[in-house]
Write the C-alpha cells for this entry.
Amino acid sequence: MTTILITTANGATGRPMVDYLLKAGFHVRAMVRSDDERARELREAGAEVALGDLLDLRDVRAALKGVRRAYFNYPVGDGLVEAAVMFAQAAKEQDLELVVNMSQIQSRPDARSKTTQNHWLSEQVLDWSGVPVTHLRVTFFMQWLLYISGLIRRGRYVMPFDGDSRFAPIAGRDIALTAANIFASPEEHAGQIHTLTGPVEYSHQQLAEEVGRVLGKDIPYEQVTVTTFLELIGLESDTVKRKHFEAVTIDQREGRLAGVSDAAASINGGPLVTVEEFVNENRSRFEFDPATSTS
C-alpha cells in the first residue's frame, strides 16, 4: 500500500486531505507538532501520526522514511526556505514519486513580500532536487472569513485590503481534494504548476455583501491598517505576518490575485464550494449576536 506523508496535518488543507486519502485507500502518515487531542483524532481516523518539526532534519527524514508521495506545506512564518531544503533532501534520499507543494498564487522572484519570495525559492529548491513535484499556487482561502468570525458576529467585516481589490476565495477542503486527486495520479501532474482559485471572483466589498446576504444582516466592509487588523485578531506581535500582509495589500492593488482558474474544478471533476455554502457550513461561527454588536 502506498504511504503518503501529509505535513501540517491538522491544518485547513492537511486535515481534510488525510480523510480524502484514507477514503481512497492510501496509508497516510500525518506529521504534526504535538501529541494532543487532534493527534488522537487523526489516529482514530486511521492515520499513522508522526511527531516532528519541519525545521529538524532528523524529524523530516524519519517522517519520510518509507513514504512514496508527500505534501509539503509550511505556515506563514520564518524558516520556509530552510524547511524546503531539508524536505527536498529527505525526499531525494527516499526517491519519492511525487511531492505536492503548497505555494502562493502571486509567487515570483521579485515579490515585495519575503514570505511570497520564499515560496518561489522553495519551488526552485524542490525542482532542483530532481524529485517529481507539483506546485499548487493558491489564492486566499475562504478560511480568512473564520479569522474575522468574531467581528462578523458583531456586525463588522474588517480587512486590511482595498475594498475594490479582487480575488476568488477557495475553501481549504477543495485544495485538499485537489491534492488528493493529484496524489492518486502522480504521473499526470508531476512537473506542473496549478493555479487554484475558488469558483467566483469578488472584490472585498462584494464579499462582505455576500456574507451579509447569506447571514441576513447588513455587514459593511471596513478597511483598516494591517497593524490594526492583526490587533483585532490577536496577532499583533507577529512581525512576519504584518510585513507579508502589507506587501499583499499592494499585490492585491496590482491585481496579482485577481481572476478565476478552473484547475481545481477540472482536477476534482465537480463544482467547488461557494461562499454561501462555506458560510452556512460554519454558520455558528458567524451568527450575529445583537447583545454584542457595535453601534
Observations:
- The first strand starts at residue 3 and ends at 6.
- Residues 3-139+172-196 form a domain with the Rossmann fold fold (CATH 3.40.50.720).
- The chain is about 45% helix and 15% strand.
- The mean pLDDT is 96.
